[in-house]
Amino acid sequence: MHLVISVLLAPIVLFRGIETMSVRFLLALAASTILQLIVILLYMKAIKRSELSVTVPLVTLTPLFMLITSPILIGEFPSALGIVGIFFIVVGTYVLNIDGNKDKPLAPFTSLITNQGSRYMFIVAFLWSITANIDKIGVEETSPIFWAFTKDFIILIYLLPIMLIKSKSPLTQLKQRAGPLFGVGLFRTLSVLSQLFAIQLILVAYVIAIKRSSALIIILFAFFFLNEKEYFKTRLIGILVILCGLILIAL
């Protein structure tokens, strides 16, 4: 994924020219890439050691953590209405992500005591609340495209030795999966750029809260196009709560 993003953005960066990299930019770049590498490793360990229904809901905590990290790192703090909107989106997204624990809705939180994978994902959620704010610094110092390229290119460099050590015949695997990897990488590139351009316009906490509500689109897609209607009535509660949160943030 990081390879595809780097390849797609490299021609644009070269055409636009290398931008001036201030000390603040370089510090943000170093912090962001190191934290992102830690996130990648912890995320993979989390989903490997625990059920997705237990670990994934914990990711919805990122916007809540940002109510603490954003004021400290970049001096941004949402309005009272915005905070309520963030809470609504977090709760709604959480409801949509607990399919495997409907009888025990607090299972992801109680698992923090006994489940190592859940603890890893909890750390991931917190680290994402930091890296999202660092993205704002990187974009302010340069531009969304240049920041996205430099960040993903350095993460790619970090991951190369890990891939060569851990993977068997990595080049062969890349060739065999070139099509799907390019497709995922293309959409990931569009997603990253959309997020970075968005944080130029509104508070980072709002952007991440709205990003987490993408579960709403997935649920609606599954209902209308994949005929997955089994849990839709239960999920409808989460959808309505998310919509309320989005409306509050829009206001």
TrEMBL record:
Gene3D superfamilies: 1.10.3730.20. InterPro entries: EamA_dom, EmrE-like. The chain crosses the membrane at residues 25-44, 56-74, 80-99, 145-165, 203-225, 232-250. Residues 3-97, 120-250 form the EamA domain. It comes from the Bacteria. Keywords: Membrane, Transmembrane, Transmembrane helix. One of its GO terms (cellular component) is membrane. PANTHER family: ACYL-MALONYL CONDENSING ENZYME-RELATED (PTHR22911). This is EamA family transporter. The lineage of its organism: Bacteria, Pseudomonadati, Bacteroidota, Cytophagia, Cytophagales.
